[in-house]
Specification:
The structure holds two protein chains of two kinds. By secondary structure, chain A is an all-alpha fold. Chain A contains 14 helices and no strands. Chain A folds into two domains: about 270 residues, no CATH class; about 90 residues, no CATH class. Chain A is globular, with a radius of gyration of 23 Å. Chain B is α+β, with helices and mostly antiparallel strands. In chain B, the strands form two sheets. An eight-stranded antiparallel sheet of chain B has the order 1-4-5-6-10-9-8-7. A three-stranded antiparallel sheet of chain B has the order 2-3-11, with no helix packed on it. The termini of chain B are far apart. Classes of the chains: A mainly alpha, B alpha+beta.
């Protein structure tokens, strides 16, 4: 059996029959009540600002959600569990963290000094409580749907979604806090400023990233059964520590004054504090994805039926960039419908690979494999009718390179303008 | 490759999912209720030197009222902003300093709107001019917060806003307000930091 993936069964046991499921649901319900009370207070005092904040940050969540959901293209997590992870972050972790972080910050002031709490309270109290509460969300998913956490990448995805839920709700709370602090009544300007700072500039390096780090550790703990339990617990603890350290670095007063207030200095601080965890997560995602892809490609390679997958498609399916290149090649040679058809074919091939892996684990599932194989053949027929029978990558086009470079330049320019507009310039 | 059952998907203690879930809930409870309980159990008051200026933040100092304790949970000093919280029995005496680019009128409007933005808070009475021994000019007024009364004062100087909030019930306030007013008049911006 591969070390990278532990095949799960398709929906073996009903969640509702598990006592742990009801514990988790109860926690979610309590969190929902608590956060609803806070939202009601906000709506009563600042209705326009609250609705605006919820709307803006909900929109911000969409690209994050789509990106994180796509990370595991080959074996997408069930929508219900993705929603559960997001809800845990937004309802449970937040409602626990609000009193917990405040209390820990107070304890730092009491047991050490108010000066230490003022300088380092946010860097010590917040990460300690919040990272623990968020990581427990991934643990909760393992408890109720262990079969759906069968690769390190699954842990990363669930952890990132828990972090995303936390980030969005926390941003709304901060936005309304800014409205209250501004003392201008029910105004949206502080919401927009908070959106630019916390959502746009800091969003990439925020809780989604920290949650992904901790989630990778839980995924490793559950999946890597070839390693001893002590080793896996150590790796999970190390991942949680990395999430804590990243969060702590981000909240810390380091470099706050030494680099000045200009836009270049603010950009340098953003990169210096945010880049290390971002690079670490990108490395983990890349490694976990490649390991998972290698496993599923090896499963599909046993099919030896070019109607289901060709040699070229096997190569393309194993890499996110090559899957994208295959779609672009289809668009260039046969139009947008071919691009969409290639995407559907790749999705169907991935689903077939997952069913095949489950069928080797559970021989009672050949019927589902046949259903998936039928879907692949169907999409193959559509593609053939469009005059593009094989979903393989073409030659690298200069247009794509130029588009990538142009997008990066525009992104840096937009960040620069926002930093300057926020007083950095 | 053999048959993989659900139990075999991991070697974590699978039969313990309910106890594990309850353990998870207990950890959350410890964070949400245990830490606040511990926080309440540790005293927050610290004695402050009587008659000596206390540094609030950003070069602003104040001489605390006699008999006041420093509440470290509401005290966060800083180079450009900060807060201090004194307690005289059940009465809270808080001072907050932060950068501000408006004038005194704007500062007073901001503070009153912040007060009325809090559920149950209402500004009461008229607003009066006030000044400190160090030459800071400001305004002060009163407000109610449910069954508690409050006084506020606000000053603007050197690009800073200094907000003073005093809260307590009527009887307690009556006893300590003269001392707090005297303390507020000692607010000073130290140019030599």
């Amino acid at each position: 059996m591969s070390e990278a993936v532990v095949p799960g069964v398709s929906r073996s046991a009903a969640l509702t029959r598990q006592p742990a499921f009801w514990v988790v649901i109860t926690l979610l319900a309590v969190g929902a009540v608590r956060m609803s009370q806070i939202a009601a207070l906000f709506l009563k005092s600042y209705p326009l600002a609250t609705v605006t904040a919820i709307g803006m940050f909900a929109l911000l969540a969409v690209p994050f959600w789509l990106f994180v959901s796509e990370l595991d293209f080959l074996e997408r997590e069930p929508a219900g569990l993705r929603v559960l992870a997001f809800a845990w972050g937004g309802l449970v972790a937040t409602s626990v963290s609000i009193p917990g972080s405040t209390a820990l910050d107070n304890l730092i002031a009491k047991l050490a000094s108010p000066d230490l709490a003022a300088e380092w309270g946010a860097a010590l109290a917040g990460p300690t409580v919040e990272e623990t509460a968020k990581t427990l969300g991934v643990v909760a998913i393992v408890l109720i749907a262990r079969a759906q956490v069968n690769s390190v990448l699954d842990g990363i995805v669930y952890g990132a979604l828990v972090g995303l839920g936390f980030q969005i709700v926390e941003d709304v709370v901060f936005a309304i806090g800014a409205v209250q602090l501004a003392g201008q009544g029910d105004q949206v300007q502080p919401v927009i400023t908070t959106f630019l700072v916390r959502g746009f500039l800091a969003g990439v390096w925020s809780h989604t990233l920290f949650g992904a780090l901790a989630g990778a550790g839980i995924g490793y703990l559950v999946v890597r059964r070839d390693r001893g339990r002590g080793h896996r617990v150590g790796v999970a603890a190390l991942a949680l520590l990395a999430a804590w350290a990243s969060h702590s670095l981000w909240n810390s007063p380091l470099f706050r004054e030494s680099l000045g207030d200009g836009a270049p200095a603010l950009l340098a601080v953003l990169l210096f504090k945010g880049m290390p965890p971002l690079l670490l997560v990108l490395y983990l995602v890349h490694r976990a994805h490649d390991r998972e892809a290698a496993y599923y490609v090896s499963v599909l390679a046993t099919v030896r039926d070019p109607q289901l997958i060709t040699e070229g498609e096997l190569r393309a399916l194993g890499s996110g960039s090559r899957r994208g290149a295959a779609r672009r090649h289809a668009a260039a040679s046969a139009g947008r419908r071919a691009r969409a058809a290639v995407r559907r074919l790749q999705r169907a091939q991935a689903a077939l690979a997952v069913e095949l892996s489950r069928a080797t684990a559970d021989p009672a599932l050949p019927a589902r494999v046949e259903v998936r194989a039928g879907e692949v053949r169907s999409h193959r027929a559509v593609l053939a009718a469009l005059g593009h029978p094989e979903a393989v990558e073409g030659a690298r086009s200069w247009r794509h390179t130029a588009s990538t470079v142009g997008t990066a330049v525009v992104a840096v320019a937009v960040v620069w303008v926002v930093l300057s507009a926020l007083g950095g310039g | 490759m053999g048959r993989v059952t659900r139990r075999q998907l991991t070697d974590l203690p699978g039969i313990l999912s309910l106890p594990a879930a309850l353990t998870l809930a207990s950890i959350l409870a410890a964070l949400a209720f245990g830490l606040p309980a511990l926080d309440r159990a540790v005293p927050a008051g610290r004695p402050v030197a009587s008659g000596l200026p206390y540094p609030v933040a950003a070069g602003v100092t104040v001489v605390p009222p006699p008999g006041a304790d420093l509440d470290v949970t509401g005290t966060r000093p800083g180079d450009d902003r900060g807060t201090v919280l004194f307690r005289l029995g059940p009465v809270r005496y808080a001072i907050e300093v932060e950068p501000f680019d408006g004038d005194l009128t704007a500062a007073a409007v901001r503070l009153r709107q912040r007060l009325t933005g809090i559920s149950g808070h209402r500004v009461s009475g008229t607003q009066l001019a006030v000044s400190t021994a160090g030459g800071l000019a400001g305004v002060q007024g009163g407000y109610t917060a449910g069954d508690r009364d409050g006084r506020y004062a606000v000053f603007v100087a050197h690009g800073l806003i200094i907000e003073v909030m005093v809260t307590g019930d009527d009887v307690d306030l009556e006893h300590v307000l003269p001392a707090i007013d005297a303390s507020t008049r000692t607010l000073r911006y130290e140019t030599e930091r």
